Amino acid sequence: MSVQLSPSPTVSVSEAMTHDEYLGALLKQSEGQQIRIHAEIVGWLQELRQRAAYDAARQRMPTRQDEEWRFTDLSELLATQFVKAQTVVPRQSAIAPLTLKEASQSRLVFVNGVYSPEYSDVSALPDGVFVGNLAQLPLEDTYEAIKYIAHHDGEQEVFTALNSTGFPDVAVIWAKKNVIVETPIHLLFVTSVEEHPTFCLPRGLIVAEKGASLTVLEQYSVTAEDCSDRPTQHPYFTNSVMEVFVEENARVNHTLLQRESGDAFHICKTAVAQSRNSHYTCNTLHLGAKLSRHNLDVWQKGEHTETYLNGLTLIGREQISDTHSGVWLNYPHGTTNHLHKCIVDHKAHAIFSGKVTVPQKAQETNAAQLNRNLLLSPKARIDTKPQLQITADNVKCTHGATISQIDADELFYLQSRGINADSARNLLLDAFAAEILDRLPLPSLQKMVAQCVSCRTYE
Protein backbone atom coordinates (compact mmCIF):
# COMPACT_ATOMS: atom_id res chain seq x y z
CA MET A 1 0.00 0.00 0.00
CA SER A 2 1.43 3.34 -1.07
CA VAL A 3 0.63 6.23 1.25
CA GLN A 4 1.85 9.76 0.73
CA LEU A 5 1.85 12.82 2.96
CA SER A 6 0.45 15.39 0.57
CA PRO A 7 0.32 19.16 1.05
CA SER A 8 -2.54 21.17 -0.34
CA PRO A 9 -1.74 23.29 -3.39
CA THR A 10 -1.07 26.97 -2.88
CA VAL A 11 -4.21 28.98 -3.63
CA SER A 12 -4.33 32.66 -4.39
CA VAL A 13 -6.69 34.47 -2.03
CA SER A 14 -6.33 37.95 -3.50
CA GLU A 15 -9.98 38.01 -4.61
CA ALA A 16 -11.16 36.77 -1.21
CA MET A 17 -9.00 39.38 0.52
CA THR A 18 -10.68 42.08 -1.56
CA HIS A 19 -14.19 40.96 -0.69
CA ASP A 20 -13.64 39.62 2.79
CA GLU A 21 -10.27 39.85 4.50
CA TYR A 22 -11.31 37.55 7.29
CA LEU A 23 -12.32 34.70 4.98
CA GLY A 24 -9.15 35.30 2.99
CA ALA A 25 -7.06 34.92 6.14
CA LEU A 26 -8.73 31.59 6.96
CA LEU A 27 -8.14 30.37 3.41
CA LYS A 28 -4.50 31.36 3.63
CA GLN A 29 -4.14 29.49 6.94
CA SER A 30 -5.55 26.33 5.33
CA GLU A 31 -2.99 26.44 2.51
CA GLY A 32 -0.37 23.74 2.67
CA GLN A 33 -2.40 21.56 5.04
CA GLN A 34 -0.80 18.13 4.97
CA ILE A 35 -2.89 14.98 4.77
CA ARG A 36 -1.77 11.34 4.70
CA ILE A 37 -3.37 9.66 1.69
CA HIS A 38 -2.61 7.12 -1.05
CA ALA A 39 -0.19 8.58 -3.58
CA GLU A 40 -2.54 7.53 -6.39
CA ILE A 41 -5.25 10.05 -5.34
CA VAL A 42 -3.07 13.11 -4.80
CA GLY A 43 -4.33 14.54 -8.10
CA TRP A 44 -7.94 14.16 -6.94
CA LEU A 45 -7.15 15.98 -3.69
CA GLN A 46 -5.43 18.87 -5.47
CA GLU A 47 -8.38 19.30 -7.80
CA LEU A 48 -10.81 19.23 -4.88
CA ARG A 49 -8.76 21.81 -2.96
CA GLN A 50 -8.54 24.15 -5.93
CA ARG A 51 -12.26 23.91 -6.69
CA ALA A 52 -13.26 24.48 -3.05
CA ALA A 53 -10.87 27.43 -2.66
CA TYR A 54 -12.34 29.00 -5.79
CA ASP A 55 -15.90 28.52 -4.45
CA ALA A 56 -14.98 30.01 -1.06
CA ALA A 57 -13.00 32.95 -2.47
CA ARG A 58 -15.97 34.04 -4.59
CA GLN A 59 -18.10 34.44 -1.47
CA ARG A 60 -17.98 36.41 1.76
CA MET A 61 -18.59 35.62 5.39
CA PRO A 62 -22.32 35.66 6.21
CA THR A 63 -23.85 38.70 7.91
CA ARG A 64 -27.19 39.36 9.54
CA GLN A 65 -28.32 40.88 6.26
CA ASP A 66 -28.41 37.35 4.83
CA GLU A 67 -31.80 35.72 5.40
CA GLU A 68 -30.35 32.41 6.58
CA TRP A 69 -28.10 34.20 9.10
CA ARG A 70 -30.24 37.13 10.23
CA PHE A 71 -30.64 35.84 13.79
CA THR A 72 -27.02 34.70 14.22
CA ASP A 73 -24.41 37.27 15.22
CA LEU A 74 -20.93 36.25 14.02
CA SER A 75 -19.23 39.41 15.31
CA GLU A 76 -17.26 37.61 18.06
CA LEU A 77 -16.03 35.01 15.58
CA LEU A 78 -14.96 37.71 13.14
CA ALA A 79 -13.16 39.58 15.93
CA THR A 80 -10.91 36.57 16.66
CA GLN A 81 -7.86 35.79 14.55
CA PHE A 82 -7.19 32.06 14.32
CA VAL A 83 -4.16 30.03 13.33
CA LYS A 84 -4.18 26.44 12.08
CA ALA A 85 -4.24 23.86 14.90
CA GLN A 86 -1.15 21.70 15.31
CA THR A 87 -1.02 17.91 15.43
CA VAL A 88 -0.71 16.86 19.07
CA VAL A 89 -1.07 13.76 21.26
CA PRO A 90 -2.98 14.64 24.45
CA ARG A 91 -2.69 12.78 27.73
CA GLN A 92 -4.74 9.63 28.28
CA SER A 93 -6.40 11.32 31.27
CA ALA A 94 -7.85 13.95 28.92
CA ILE A 95 -9.41 11.37 26.57
CA ALA A 96 -10.70 8.81 29.09
CA PRO A 97 -13.66 10.91 30.42
CA LEU A 98 -14.97 11.30 26.86
CA THR A 99 -15.23 7.58 26.07
CA LEU A 100 -18.29 5.32 26.35
CA LYS A 101 -18.30 1.77 27.67
CA GLU A 102 -20.51 0.41 24.85
CA ALA A 103 -17.87 1.56 22.34
CA SER A 104 -14.67 0.71 24.23
CA GLN A 105 -13.48 -1.37 21.26
CA SER A 106 -15.32 0.45 18.48
CA ARG A 107 -13.91 3.94 18.95
CA LEU A 108 -12.21 6.16 16.39
CA VAL A 109 -10.45 9.25 17.79
CA PHE A 110 -9.29 12.37 15.95
CA VAL A 111 -7.38 15.16 17.71
CA ASN A 112 -7.45 18.56 16.03
CA GLY A 113 -8.95 16.82 13.01
CA VAL A 114 -6.14 14.25 12.67
CA TYR A 115 -6.45 10.50 13.27
CA SER A 116 -5.06 9.41 16.64
CA PRO A 117 -4.21 5.68 16.61
CA GLU A 118 -3.05 5.86 20.25
CA TYR A 119 -6.63 6.24 21.48
CA SER A 120 -8.54 4.40 18.74
CA ASP A 121 -9.66 0.78 19.05
CA VAL A 122 -11.99 -0.89 16.53
CA SER A 123 -11.17 -4.50 17.35
CA ALA A 124 -14.76 -5.38 18.31
CA LEU A 125 -16.20 -4.59 14.88
CA PRO A 126 -17.18 -7.43 12.52
CA ASP A 127 -15.86 -8.15 9.05
CA GLY A 128 -17.52 -6.16 6.33
CA VAL A 129 -17.28 -2.77 8.02
CA PHE A 130 -14.31 -0.41 7.75
CA VAL A 131 -13.68 2.17 10.48
CA GLY A 132 -10.53 4.26 10.14
CA ASN A 133 -9.09 7.17 8.22
CA LEU A 134 -8.70 7.61 4.48
CA ALA A 135 -5.05 6.49 4.48
CA GLN A 136 -6.00 3.11 6.02
CA LEU A 137 -8.74 2.40 3.50
CA PRO A 138 -7.58 -0.13 0.86
CA LEU A 139 -6.75 1.55 -2.42
CA GLU A 140 -9.55 -0.13 -4.39
CA ASP A 141 -12.08 1.12 -1.81
CA THR A 142 -10.45 4.55 -1.78
CA TYR A 143 -11.32 4.96 -5.44
CA GLU A 144 -14.96 4.37 -4.45
CA ALA A 145 -14.75 6.71 -1.43
CA ILE A 146 -13.61 9.71 -3.46
CA LYS A 147 -16.81 9.38 -5.51
CA TYR A 148 -18.67 10.35 -2.33
CA ILE A 149 -16.41 12.96 -0.69
CA ALA A 150 -17.49 16.53 -1.49
CA HIS A 151 -20.19 15.36 -3.91
CA HIS A 152 -23.27 16.29 -1.88
CA ASP A 153 -25.67 19.10 -2.75
CA GLY A 154 -24.64 22.32 -1.01
CA GLU A 155 -20.89 21.70 -1.24
CA GLN A 156 -20.40 25.31 -2.38
CA GLU A 157 -21.72 26.82 0.89
CA VAL A 158 -18.95 29.02 2.30
CA PHE A 159 -18.09 27.09 5.48
CA THR A 160 -18.37 23.74 3.71
CA ALA A 161 -16.06 24.97 0.95
CA LEU A 162 -13.63 26.29 3.57
CA ASN A 163 -13.51 22.81 5.12
CA SER A 164 -12.78 21.25 1.72
CA THR A 165 -9.81 23.56 1.16
CA GLY A 166 -7.88 22.26 4.16
CA PHE A 167 -9.27 19.24 6.02
CA PRO A 168 -6.23 17.43 7.51
CA ASP A 169 -7.78 13.94 7.51
CA VAL A 170 -11.00 12.07 6.74
CA ALA A 171 -12.77 9.72 9.15
CA VAL A 172 -14.37 6.87 7.18
CA ILE A 173 -17.10 4.49 8.36
CA TRP A 174 -18.14 2.10 5.59
CA ALA A 175 -20.51 -0.86 5.92
CA LYS A 176 -20.56 -3.27 3.00
CA LYS A 177 -23.69 -4.73 1.44
CA ASN A 178 -26.07 -6.45 3.92
CA VAL A 179 -23.63 -6.06 6.86
CA ILE A 180 -25.46 -5.52 10.15
CA VAL A 181 -23.21 -3.78 12.69
CA GLU A 182 -24.78 -4.18 16.12
CA THR A 183 -21.87 -2.63 18.03
CA PRO A 184 -22.21 1.17 18.22
CA ILE A 185 -19.34 3.11 16.64
CA HIS A 186 -17.99 6.12 18.55
CA LEU A 187 -16.41 8.78 16.33
CA LEU A 188 -14.71 11.20 18.73
CA PHE A 189 -13.34 14.55 17.53
CA VAL A 190 -11.29 16.23 20.25
CA THR A 191 -9.75 19.70 20.23
CA SER A 192 -6.57 20.27 22.22
CA VAL A 193 -6.56 23.95 23.23
CA GLU A 194 -3.47 26.07 22.73
CA GLU A 195 -2.32 29.48 23.93
CA HIS A 196 -3.33 31.16 20.67
CA PRO A 197 -6.80 30.79 19.11
CA THR A 198 -6.77 27.90 16.63
CA PHE A 199 -9.10 26.46 14.05
CA CYS A 200 -9.45 22.91 12.77
CA LEU A 201 -11.44 21.31 9.96
CA PRO A 202 -12.68 17.80 10.87
CA ARG A 203 -14.13 15.76 8.01
CA GLY A 204 -16.05 12.49 7.98
CA LEU A 205 -17.74 10.05 5.61
CA ILE A 206 -20.37 7.45 6.53
CA VAL A 207 -21.55 4.97 3.88
CA ALA A 208 -24.09 2.22 4.47
CA GLU A 209 -24.36 0.08 1.35
CA LYS A 210 -27.52 -1.74 0.28
CA GLY A 211 -29.11 -3.59 3.21
CA ALA A 212 -26.46 -2.50 5.74
CA SER A 213 -27.16 -1.17 9.25
CA LEU A 214 -25.06 1.16 11.43
CA THR A 215 -25.25 3.03 14.75
CA VAL A 216 -22.82 5.95 14.95
CA LEU A 217 -22.12 8.52 17.67
CA GLU A 218 -20.29 11.59 16.34
CA GLN A 219 -18.95 13.62 19.27
CA TYR A 220 -17.13 16.96 19.47
CA SER A 221 -15.39 17.86 22.69
CA VAL A 222 -12.25 19.41 24.17
CA THR A 223 -9.46 18.27 26.43
CA ALA A 224 -10.34 19.73 29.83
CA GLU A 225 -9.72 19.01 33.48
CA ASP A 226 -13.23 20.10 34.46
CA CYS A 227 -16.58 19.89 32.65
CA SER A 228 -15.71 19.93 28.96
CA ASP A 229 -18.40 22.42 27.90
CA ARG A 230 -17.49 25.15 30.40
CA PRO A 231 -15.43 28.23 29.41
CA THR A 232 -11.65 27.82 29.63
CA GLN A 233 -10.51 31.25 28.33
CA HIS A 234 -8.99 29.52 25.29
CA PRO A 235 -11.10 30.24 22.18
CA TYR A 236 -10.92 28.00 19.11
CA PHE A 237 -12.95 27.38 15.97
CA THR A 238 -14.18 23.98 14.77
CA ASN A 239 -15.61 23.88 11.23
CA SER A 240 -16.67 20.31 10.46
CA VAL A 241 -18.39 18.43 7.64
CA MET A 242 -19.96 14.96 7.87
CA GLU A 243 -21.34 13.30 4.73
CA VAL A 244 -23.75 10.38 5.15
CA PHE A 245 -24.93 8.09 2.34
CA VAL A 246 -27.71 5.61 3.13
CA GLU A 247 -28.14 3.25 0.22
CA GLU A 248 -31.18 1.17 -0.72
CA ASN A 249 -32.78 -0.68 2.22
CA ALA A 250 -29.97 0.49 4.55
CA ARG A 251 -30.40 1.90 8.06
CA VAL A 252 -28.26 4.48 9.88
CA ASN A 253 -28.88 5.66 13.44
CA HIS A 254 -26.68 8.74 13.76
CA THR A 255 -26.20 10.80 16.93
CA LEU A 256 -24.33 14.12 17.01
CA LEU A 257 -23.14 15.33 20.44
CA GLN A 258 -21.59 18.79 20.58
CA ARG A 259 -19.84 19.53 23.89
CA GLU A 260 -17.23 22.05 22.85
CA SER A 261 -15.66 24.43 25.35
CA GLY A 262 -17.74 27.44 26.37
CA ASP A 263 -15.17 29.62 24.57
CA ALA A 264 -15.43 27.74 21.27
CA PHE A 265 -17.00 28.55 17.93
CA HIS A 266 -18.52 25.48 16.31
CA ILE A 267 -20.00 25.39 12.80
CA CYS A 268 -20.85 21.97 11.41
CA LYS A 269 -22.52 20.55 8.34
CA THR A 270 -24.32 17.21 8.18
CA ALA A 271 -25.22 16.28 4.60
CA VAL A 272 -27.34 13.15 4.13
CA ALA A 273 -28.41 11.35 0.94
CA GLN A 274 -31.05 8.61 1.25
CA SER A 275 -31.74 6.04 -1.44
CA ARG A 276 -34.93 4.05 -1.97
CA ASN A 277 -36.46 2.31 1.09
CA SER A 278 -33.72 3.61 3.39
CA HIS A 279 -34.09 4.62 7.03
CA TYR A 280 -32.11 7.45 8.65
CA THR A 281 -32.34 8.74 12.23
CA CYS A 282 -30.36 11.74 13.47
CA ASN A 283 -30.27 12.70 17.15
CA THR A 284 -28.57 16.06 17.76
CA LEU A 285 -27.45 17.31 21.18
CA HIS A 286 -26.00 20.81 21.46
CA LEU A 287 -24.68 21.70 24.91
CA GLY A 288 -21.40 23.55 24.52
CA ALA A 289 -19.67 26.33 22.52
CA LYS A 290 -19.98 30.07 22.84
CA LEU A 291 -21.49 30.08 19.35
CA SER A 292 -22.65 27.00 17.45
CA ARG A 293 -24.39 26.48 14.14
CA HIS A 294 -25.58 23.13 12.78
CA ASN A 295 -26.63 22.89 9.14
CA LEU A 296 -28.48 19.57 8.72
CA ASP A 297 -29.47 18.81 5.12
CA VAL A 298 -31.24 15.61 4.01
CA TRP A 299 -31.90 14.78 0.36
CA GLN A 300 -34.27 12.02 -0.66
CA LYS A 301 -32.82 10.14 -3.65
CA GLY A 302 -35.57 7.55 -4.01
CA GLU A 303 -39.09 6.73 -2.89
CA HIS A 304 -40.27 5.16 0.39
CA THR A 305 -37.58 6.79 2.58
CA GLU A 306 -37.97 7.31 6.33
CA THR A 307 -36.23 10.21 8.08
CA TYR A 308 -36.44 10.88 11.83
CA LEU A 309 -34.73 13.96 13.28
CA ASN A 310 -34.61 14.51 17.06
CA GLY A 311 -32.81 17.44 18.66
CA LEU A 312 -32.08 18.95 22.07
CA THR A 313 -30.37 22.31 22.63
CA LEU A 314 -29.44 23.20 26.21
CA ILE A 315 -27.68 26.55 26.61
CA GLY A 316 -27.11 29.25 29.23
CA ARG A 317 -24.82 32.17 30.04
CA GLU A 318 -24.50 34.13 26.75
CA GLN A 319 -24.34 31.14 24.40
CA ILE A 320 -25.77 31.25 20.88
CA SER A 321 -26.97 28.00 19.31
CA ASP A 322 -28.40 27.89 15.79
CA THR A 323 -29.98 24.83 14.16
CA HIS A 324 -30.84 25.04 10.46
CA SER A 325 -32.37 21.92 8.90
CA GLY A 326 -33.57 21.19 5.41
CA VAL A 327 -35.33 18.06 4.15
CA TRP A 328 -35.91 17.72 0.42
CA LEU A 329 -38.50 15.03 -0.36
CA ASN A 330 -38.23 14.60 -4.12
CA TYR A 331 -39.97 11.23 -4.53
CA PRO A 332 -43.33 9.69 -3.51
CA HIS A 333 -44.09 7.94 -0.23
CA GLY A 334 -41.50 9.72 1.89
CA THR A 335 -41.85 10.02 5.66
CA THR A 336 -40.11 12.55 7.86
CA ASN A 337 -40.66 13.52 11.49
CA HIS A 338 -38.61 16.28 13.15
CA LEU A 339 -38.84 17.16 16.85
CA HIS A 340 -36.41 19.76 18.20
CA LYS A 341 -36.43 21.05 21.78
CA CYS A 342 -34.56 23.99 23.30
CA ILE A 343 -33.96 24.87 26.96
CA VAL A 344 -32.57 28.40 27.19
CA ASP A 345 -31.36 30.09 30.38
CA HIS A 346 -29.65 33.35 31.44
CA LYS A 347 -28.92 35.56 28.39
CA ALA A 348 -28.56 32.71 25.90
CA HIS A 349 -30.08 32.78 22.41
CA ALA A 350 -31.37 29.74 20.50
CA ILE A 351 -32.35 29.76 16.83
CA PHE A 352 -34.29 27.09 14.98
CA SER A 353 -35.07 27.14 11.27
CA GLY A 354 -36.48 23.99 9.75
CA LYS A 355 -37.58 23.59 6.15
CA VAL A 356 -39.35 20.67 4.50
CA THR A 357 -39.70 20.86 0.71
CA VAL A 358 -42.34 18.71 -1.02
CA PRO A 359 -42.47 19.26 -4.81
CA GLN A 360 -45.24 18.09 -7.12
CA LYS A 361 -43.80 14.64 -7.80
CA ALA A 362 -43.50 13.79 -4.06
CA GLN A 363 -47.07 12.53 -3.70
CA GLU A 364 -48.26 10.68 -0.58
CA THR A 365 -45.58 12.29 1.57
CA ASN A 366 -46.02 12.31 5.35
CA ALA A 367 -44.06 15.12 7.01
CA ALA A 368 -44.21 16.50 10.55
CA GLN A 369 -42.07 19.16 12.20
CA LEU A 370 -42.32 20.58 15.73
CA ASN A 371 -40.06 22.94 17.66
CA ARG A 372 -40.74 23.20 21.41
CA ASN A 373 -38.89 25.73 23.55
CA LEU A 374 -38.54 26.58 27.24
CA LEU A 375 -37.29 29.98 28.42
CA LEU A 376 -35.89 29.84 31.95
CA SER A 377 -34.90 33.50 32.22
CA PRO A 378 -36.56 36.81 31.23
CA LYS A 379 -33.42 37.66 29.23
CA ALA A 380 -33.27 34.35 27.34
CA ARG A 381 -34.28 34.45 23.68
CA ILE A 382 -35.72 32.10 21.08
CA ASP A 383 -36.16 32.69 17.35
CA THR A 384 -38.02 29.88 15.60
CA LYS A 385 -39.01 29.45 11.96
CA PRO A 386 -40.56 26.11 10.98
CA GLN A 387 -41.37 26.00 7.26
CA LEU A 388 -43.21 23.80 4.79
CA GLN A 389 -42.91 24.35 1.04
CA ILE A 390 -45.52 22.13 -0.61
CA THR A 391 -46.63 21.92 -4.23
CA ALA A 392 -47.82 18.28 -4.13
CA ASP A 393 -51.56 17.88 -3.50
CA ASN A 394 -51.81 14.40 -1.96
CA VAL A 395 -49.76 14.79 1.21
CA LYS A 396 -50.06 14.90 4.98
CA CYS A 397 -47.82 17.65 6.38
CA THR A 398 -47.83 19.49 9.69
CA HIS A 399 -45.52 21.94 11.40
CA GLY A 400 -45.54 24.09 14.51
CA ALA A 401 -43.61 25.80 17.28
CA THR A 402 -44.22 26.59 20.95
CA ILE A 403 -42.37 28.97 23.26
CA SER A 404 -43.18 28.98 26.95
CA GLN A 405 -41.92 29.15 30.49
CA ILE A 406 -42.33 26.43 33.08
CA ASP A 407 -46.04 25.96 33.63
CA ALA A 408 -47.15 27.48 36.94
CA ASP A 409 -50.03 25.01 37.31
CA GLU A 410 -47.68 22.06 36.93
CA LEU A 411 -45.33 23.55 39.53
CA PHE A 412 -48.23 24.09 41.90
CA TYR A 413 -49.44 20.51 41.38
CA LEU A 414 -46.04 19.04 42.28
CA GLN A 415 -45.64 21.35 45.27
CA SER A 416 -49.08 20.33 46.51
CA ARG A 417 -47.71 16.76 46.63
CA GLY A 418 -44.95 17.80 49.04
CA ILE A 419 -42.17 18.53 46.52
CA ASN A 420 -40.29 21.77 47.13
CA ALA A 421 -40.20 24.47 44.44
CA ASP A 422 -36.64 23.82 43.21
CA SER A 423 -37.12 20.07 42.98
CA ALA A 424 -40.45 20.53 41.21
CA ARG A 425 -38.86 22.86 38.65
CA ASN A 426 -36.01 20.47 37.98
CA LEU A 427 -38.37 17.52 37.69
CA LEU A 428 -40.31 19.32 34.96
CA LEU A 429 -37.09 20.19 33.09
CA ASP A 430 -35.93 16.58 33.29
CA ALA A 431 -39.26 15.44 31.85
CA PHE A 432 -39.03 18.00 29.04
CA ALA A 433 -35.57 16.77 27.99
CA ALA A 434 -36.37 13.08 28.53
CA GLU A 435 -38.52 12.87 25.40
CA ILE A 436 -35.35 13.35 23.36
CA LEU A 437 -32.92 11.53 25.67
CA ASP A 438 -35.07 8.39 25.63
CA ARG A 439 -34.51 8.15 21.87
CA LEU A 440 -30.72 7.96 22.18
CA PRO A 441 -29.35 4.52 21.25
CA LEU A 442 -26.71 4.15 24.02
CA PRO A 443 -27.68 3.88 27.72
CA SER A 444 -24.39 5.39 28.89
CA LEU A 445 -24.93 8.34 26.54
CA GLN A 446 -28.42 8.83 27.92
CA LYS A 447 -27.00 8.87 31.44
CA MET A 448 -24.16 11.25 30.57
CA VAL A 449 -26.40 13.80 28.84
CA ALA A 450 -29.04 13.52 31.60
CA GLN A 451 -26.32 14.42 34.10
CA CYS A 452 -25.40 17.43 31.95
CA VAL A 453 -29.04 18.53 31.90
CA SER A 454 -29.24 18.17 35.66
CA CYS A 455 -25.98 20.02 36.24
CA ARG A 456 -26.91 22.89 33.93
CA THR A 457 -30.51 23.30 35.10
CA TYR A 458 -29.92 22.75 38.83
CA GLU A 459 -27.44 25.66 39.05
From TrEMBL:
It comes from the Bacteria. Residues 198-432 form the SUF system FeS cluster assembly SufBD core domain. This is Fe-S cluster assembly protein SufD. SUPFAM superfamilies: Stabilizer of iron transporter SufD. Pfam families: SUFBD_core (PF01458), SufBD_N (PF19295). NCBIfam families: sufD (TIGR01981). It comes from Spirulina subsalsa FACHB-351. Belongs to the iron-sulfur cluster assembly SufBD family. Residues 35-186 form the SUF system FeS cluster assembly SufBD N-terminal domain.
